[in-house]
Amino acid sequence: MTFSELTDKITNIASQKGGLGSSIKFDTDEGNIFISQDGQVSNTDDTADCTIKVSLKDLQGLMTGDLNPMTAMMFGKLKISGDMGVAMKLQSLF
């Protein structure tokens, strides 16, 4: 899946579920995917309540369930900065 396709997939999911009340940014090796508090998705480098640094391949794995988030954290495949509570809300989005 390309960066553009993944952005589109996250946009579709976010539009169906609405916002989380907090902003989240996925900082990937191919660009940023920013989800605003109200669920709007863009590829901007805005400041977020929670930033998750992850490769595009690993983000795909997290979204499909092929990669366990706790395992990814333990092996350094994903790094979270900012509000950890916001990161926990991602389970309800994906």
List the helices and strands and how they pair.
Layout: H1 3-17, E1 24-28, E2 31-35, E3 41-42, E4 50-54, H2 56-64, H3 69-74, E5 78-82, H4 84-93
Parallel strand pairs: 1-4
Antiparallel strand pairs: 1-2, 2-3, 4-5
Comma- or semicolon-separated keywords:
single chain; about 90 residues; alpha+beta; Nonspecific Lipid-transfer Protein, Chain A; five-stranded mixed β-sheet; 4 helices; 5 strands; globular
Summary, kept brief:
By secondary structure, the chain is of the alpha+beta class.
3D structure, described in words:
By secondary structure, the chain is an alpha+beta fold. It has one domain (3-89): SCP2 sterol-binding domain (Nonspecific Lipid-transfer Protein, Chain A), CATH 3.30.1050.10. It is built from 4 helices and 5 strands; from the N terminus they run H-E-E-E-E-H-H-E-H. It has helices at 3-17, 56-64, 69-74, 84-93, and strands spanning 24-28, 31-35, 41-42, 50-54, 78-82. A 5-stranded mixed beta sheet has the order 3-2-1-4-5. The two termini are 17 Å apart. The model has no long low-confidence stretch (mean pLDDT 91).
